[in-house]
Amino acid sequence: MYICSRAIAPIARNVLSRATVRPAIATCNFHTSTAKKDIDQAAKYIGAGAATVGVAGSGAGIGTVFGNLVIGYARNPGCKQQLFTYAILGFALSEAMGLFCLMMAFLMLFAF
Questions:
Q1: Nearby residues of 106 by Cβ (< 8 Å), 6 or more positions away
Q2: What's the whole-model pTM score?
Q3: How many CB atoms lie within 10 A of CB 94?
Q4: Rounded to an integer, what distance in angstroms lies between the CA atom of residue 106 and that of residue 84?
Q5: DSSP classification of residue 18
Q6: Which of 23, 79, 93, 103 has a CA positioned 20 to 30 A from the CA of residue 13?
Q7: E strands within 1-112?
Q8: pLDDT score recorded for residue 36
Q9: Per-residue pLDDT reduced to its tens digit, 55-106
Q10: Can you give the C-alpha Rg of the chain in angstroms?
Q11: How many beta carbons lie within 10 A of that of residue 79, not counting itself?
Q12: pLDDT at 17
């Protein structure tokens, strides 16, 4: 057994020394100028500003929902509970869309 290990050890060392470890992902160094970074930063701010326009639409939607609720109460006071249920549903959906717009704006600012 000792003779076998003495014969195999140099061969194994030679094979292992030739093996090179290659990285799984090729790396490249990208060099961007400061003007390119400024343009990217400006694009982020413009995109985030455009995404927050939906928050104003959400406010208008909530105002419309509750304005129509008051009109509905005035026309038919007997359906007060059913109208209020629909108004809360409309409020929740409109508010959710506004929050999604705000979330996208923050994502553009801080994730990219």
A1: 48
A2: 0.59
A3: 19
A4: 33
A5: H
A6: 23
A7: none
A8: 80
A9: 999 999 999 999 999 999 999 999 999 999 999 999 999 999 999 999 999 9
A10: 33
A11: 13
A12: 61
